[in-house]
Every structure is written in structure tokens, then in C-alpha cells.
Amino acid sequence: MGLSIGIVGLPNVGKSTLFNALTRLQAEASNYPFCTIDPNVGVVEVPDDRLQKLAAFAHPEKIVPTAIEFVDIAGLVKNAHEGEGLGNQFLGHIRKVDAICHVVRGFDNPNIIHVEGSIDPKRDIEIIEMELALSDLAIVQKRLSATKNFAKSGDKDKLNEVKWLNELHAMLSAGKWVFLQKDWRNSELEEGKERLLRELQLLTDKPIMYAVNVAETEVAAFDVPKFIATMGLLSDAVVLSFCAQIEQELTSLSDEEAAMFLADLGLKESGLTRMVHAGYKLLDLLTFFTAGEKEVKAWTVTRGAKAPQAAGVIHTDFEKAFIRVEAIAWDKLIAAGSYAAAKEKGWMRIEGKEYVMQDGDTVHFLHSAKK
User: If DSSP codes are grouped into helix, strand and coil, which group holds residue 324?
Assistant: First the structure.
């Protein structure tokens, strides 16, 4: 299961600098708006200490971490939905991502211009989110005009679609984030609604997290609850702080040097690691492993997924031909010393189709699919 996150924000908030640090791809980052014209895409390995520990246990030929894709688009401005600053072109680049990371400027530097003339995170958040909502509104209006013609025939599905599109139109006109309207998204005829939402690819129907770019001295002491309250966000909003310059400096350091550098700043993890963890939380994901002599590999699945679904992540045929799964927590496998010892101790579980996957499970799927 891939994971992709679209990075959005106003110009000069640190998006491209962050992207460079995260992916080590040198997307141009200059001190002027619209420096980034085409979307930059980078694939980053997800840091997970458990992989190295499992590798020490299994001695595989290779280690394969799971990955996350970051898509960096040019800075948006007011009226981007109307094409201001090439806005519509930029917004189209992120309609297929799984989640959105809104980079917010929280640092003051007179040498780096702000398109709005001052530092005001609340205003900036409102600008970007309104632009995303208005861009979605245009898509809903277009679909609504087309669907009304088909609905004249009395087709029940089309009539339902018109009803839902009108409801979406009302939400977006009020600047509401569709993803947060849980009662509406999970109400009756959910399947039809979900299909409509998949087809529309609304930006406001994606989970969103906020990455606040602050000064080096403010990262460790950043007060997330205070920021959430001040910005008027929901109490469970996913928010993290980072310093783009710190992240950039880390790319030139060894792992040991980076750990010491972060410790001196009062940080345990880099912005990349915290952003990946935030992305997993946002999308409610978990990681499971396969570990053998050929490879130790990390896989990603939605929390709550059952064993056949997890098998399908490895190969689609495995889900259809699923028989059972042998599962053990990664640390218990290491403690046992070998698969044979884990089985002797009764730690290796044999589970069927209803087994709900747990984060850190190390598994072997039994199936009847032909390779």
C-alpha cells in the first residue's frame, strides 16, 4: 500500500526547502514566489528501527522499508481557484494524493518576503483552505450541471447523486472541509457516496495535517495544544513543528552526527520521522513485516485490516487464495531467537480470515495461489 502526501502552502513558507531535506532531491528553492512550477515528486524510505533489529535476527540478503511519496507543488495565493498564480494548474497536481500536509510559516525573517506582508499563521491557513474549498466547489458545480440532465429521466442513482452534490455544494460554499463531515460521509447509501467522492477527488475530502515551520530555537518548545486552540482547529488536529533549515542541515550529517545535533536541540527525532509518523496517524495506518533469508520487508495496511487484506498488499492473488496466517509480534520473534523456538514456546499464532492485523506483526501467509 503506497502512501502519498501533497505539500501545500503559501509561497516562501519553506515547502521546497522541506521537500529537499525530506527527499534529498534538489528541487529549486529560491526567495521568490512561483519558483516551483512543475510538481516535484520524491520517494522517501520510512525510518523504522524494527527493520534493522529484524535484519539482525534474520540475516537477510536485503532490507526493504516501506516508502512514502511527497508531492511538492508551487505556492498558492488568494484566488488560486480562479487561476491566480497558475493556481488551478498547481491544485490539479495533488488531487490523487492520500493526504495533504499544509506547511505554515511560523518564523519571522525580514530577508524572506511574505506574500501577504506579515506573519499570521491563522490568516494563512484560512487562505489556503478556502482556496482548496473553492477549487472543489468548481468541480462539484460542473458535475452537478451534467448530472441534473441525466436525473430528468427519473433514474434513482442520478437523483441521489444530485442530492449529494447539492449537499456538497452547500458545505463547500460555507468553506467546510468535507473529510471532517463524518455524519454525512457515513450516513445511508454510503457506497454510492463513497463512489462519488472517489470520482470527484476533492481536495477537501483528504485528511490534512499542519507542519509549522518555526525558528531553530522554537522547535523543541513548540506548544501544539496552544497552536490548535489559537488557530481554531479541531482538538484532534494533527500538528507538528519543524525547522526547514535544521532538516536541510541534517542531510549532510552521518546518522551519529545527526543524533547528536538533534539532542543538542532537545529533539529526539528529525522532522522527516515526525512527519511520517504524523502521516501514519492521519491515515490510520500500521506496519507489518515479513522476515526471511532473502529479505526483511515492511508493509503498510490500514488499521483494522484483516489478514486476507494484508496478504493482498503483498500480492492481489494472495487475498483471494488466503488460507491462514502465521503471526508473531516482531519483538517476541527476536526474543525467541528463531521461528522454530517461537513455535515451541507457543508464541507463533495460527490465525484465520477474521484476524485483525496488529502493528509490528511478523507474518507468513499460507495461500493456494500459484506464483
Answer: strand
CB 178 within 8 A of CB 171: yes
Q: Assess contact for 204 and 136: CB atoms under 8 A.
A: yes
Give, as one character, the DSSP assignment of residue 350: E
**Cα–Cα distance list, 130 to 124, 125, 126, 203 (Å):** 10, 8, 6, 11
Three-class secondary structure of residue 50 per DSSP: helix
The phi, psi pair for 133, rounded to 5°, reads: -65, -40
DSSP for 270-316, written as a single string: -HHHHHHHHHHHHHTEEEEEEE-SSEEEEEEEETT-BHHHHHHHH-H
Question: Quick one: which H or E segment has residue 180?
Answer: none
Q: In b/e form, how buried is each residue of 326-339, taking b as 16+ CB within 10 angstroms? A: bbbbbeebbebeeb
Residue with cell 511478523: 362
C-alpha cell at 86: 497558475
- Contact status, residue 139 vs residue 200, Cβ threshold 8 Å: yes
Q: In a structure prediction context, what are the per-residue pLDDT tens digits for the chain, which is 371 residues long?
A: 568 899 899 888 988 888 888 776 444 444 444 444 456 788 888 889 999 999 999 999 999 998 888 888 766 656 645 554 444 556 777 888 899 999 999 998 888 888 888 999 999 999 998 888 988 999 999 999 989 877 777 778 888 899 999 999 999 998 889 999 988 887 665 678 889 999 999 999 999 999 999 999 999 999 999 999 999 999 999 999 999 889 888 988 898 999 999 999 999 998 878 888 888 888 899 999 999 999 999 999 999 999 999 999 999 999 999 999 999 999 999 999 999 999 999 999 999 999 999 999 999 999 997 75
Question: Could you give the CA distance from residue 300 to residue 78 in angstroms, rounded to a whole number?
Answer: 37
Q: Which residues pair with 298 in a beta bridge?
A: 289
**What pTM, to 2 d.p., does this model score?**
0.86
The packing angle between helices 15-23 and 271-283, to 10°, is 100
76: its cell numbers: 498558492
Q: What is the DSSP letter of 356?
A: B
Per residue, what are the HEC states of 72-129?
ECCCCCCCHHHCHHHHHHHHHCCCCCCEEEEEEECCCCCCCCCCCCCCCHHHHHHHHH
